[in-house]
Design a protein that fits this description.
Blueprint lengths: L1 H6 L2 E7 L6 H12 L2 E4 H7 L3 E5 L4 E4 L1 H14 E6 L13 E6 L2 H10 L4 H12 L2 H9 L5 E5 L3 H21 L1
Parallel strand pairs: 1-5, 1-6, 2-5, 6-7
Antiparallel strand pairs: 3-4
């Protein structure tokens, strides 16, 4: 497993968290600061039809995890990627050197998701997901615990602080591995 990592010249990061926690904002800013490639899995699924149709109940595409992994395999082996997605348990463990779980206070998250037009069960399911720290648990079960970090993402200041800390991590990556 360590062999895969040592072949890469640049690290791969996964930025995950409940919808509305700032994954895309954080990933875009981090990509700009580090010159890593930002891969928004939700956009990739739409653009390349890596899904099995639309689910009216959850108001999103039914992602085909195998197609997504096949699509990403080569670029992940190269390294230098920031993968942005609200799930994390289906990606191969060997792909990531650092897994960031963004977390947001529920009152802040509720407002963000409401502004996005989330209502009913879609809104309450995502808030519950955050309350029970579902994604942090999923990340800890899917990856070595020493590469998983939770970061608070309530405000623009938090996002800036997170991007600065992650930029330092990326710059120091070669000395760590």
């Amino acid at each position: 497993m360590m062999q895969d990592r040592s072949k890469r010249k640049r690290p791969n990061l996964l930025v995950t968290g409940t919808p509305g926690t700032g994954k895309t904002t954080t990933s875009s800013a981090l990509a700009e600061a580090t010159q890593l490639r930002h891969i928004n899995v939700g956009e990739l699924v739409k653009d390349k039809n890596l899904h099995d149709g639309w689910d009216d109940e959850v108001e999103s595409y039914l992602i085909n995890e195998d197609l997504v992994c096949d699509e990403l395999e080569d670029v992940m082996e190269e390294g230098g990627n920031i993968v942005d997605y609200h799930g994390c348990d289906f990606f191969p463990e060997r792909w990531f050197d650092h897994v960031v779980v963004l977390q947001t206070d529920n009152s802040v998250l509720y407002d963000r998701l409401s502004k996005r037009g989330y209502t009913g069960s879609k809104l309450s399911n995502n808030i519950e997901c955050e309350i029970f720290q579902v994604l942090l648990e999923e990340a800890k079960e899917s990856y070595p615990e020493n590469i998983v970090v939770a970061m608070k993402s309530h405000t623009i200041e938090d996002i800036s602080r997170n991007v600065a800390a992650l930029t330092d991590w990326v710059r120091n990556w070669n000395t760590q591995s």
